[in-house]
What does this fold into?
Amino acid sequence: MDQNEFYIGWMAKAPALFASFIRRYLLWLIPLLLLTAAGLALLQKKASSATFEFGRITNLTGVYHSLPVPLLRINQGVDASGTTLFQTIPLVGFGKSGAGGMIGELERKMNISLEGMLLTLQGTLLYNDGKTLLQIENSDSLLRATTIPSGSDASAPQPIDLGTATVKGEIADPKCFFGVMKPGEGKPHRDCAIRCILGGIPPVLVVHNSRGRANYYLLVGPNGERMNTAVQDFVAEPVTISGKRILYDDWIILYAQDTTAIRRNSYLAEHFGNSIVSCKDGCTK
It folds into this structure.
């Protein structure tokens, strides 16, 4: 471009050489910007299909169990082979709270144990990817409590031992992940997930295989104890956990080998061995 030409913004018309220079570069720049914008849009993660039936109350009847997490075991009928099918639906409380405290308060008021009883609860369903949870809100959520016959096949889930395994995934709170929030995982949701888990909602480990399909592990300690406090420093981070896997109907429970042995995934740990060891307060060294 001719160095003698000088363009000032208030001029009615740009010098010919200057205008030609700008026009030439705009012919490349505009398509490049459009392609970049389209590429970024296509690379964005798609919105979750998780559903929270806000404002819609559903009644569910099933056998209540407090372990490994508070849940209802619901009879789904008999299949073609004559096998009775059950669905296990974990329970969560209103807001950032678990259902265990609410059920415990009901038991104290009624002076009975609801463990193993046939309950009719009302609440709000949330579901995604084949998993369903029920949010119960207050004492009015319990509509009926009936003792079931001793030895009934609905009295407790029949555990199936899947063996021990080391799995890598992300710890999330299932209430938000399966319906209440979008996104309900990852760094943007970390603070909310920590508060939900510390409020009593059982943590879930979300594990993706090489094809992108997810498995979900409800996470408890080696003897079934709660892991809520132990996992708080690892929520929404890639972690590795070893433990025993037990299938309860349509959920897998991961009994972690040690409540303090959750390992953060990192490039160094992947390529130079497991020299990074977690400690009780969440620090690594």
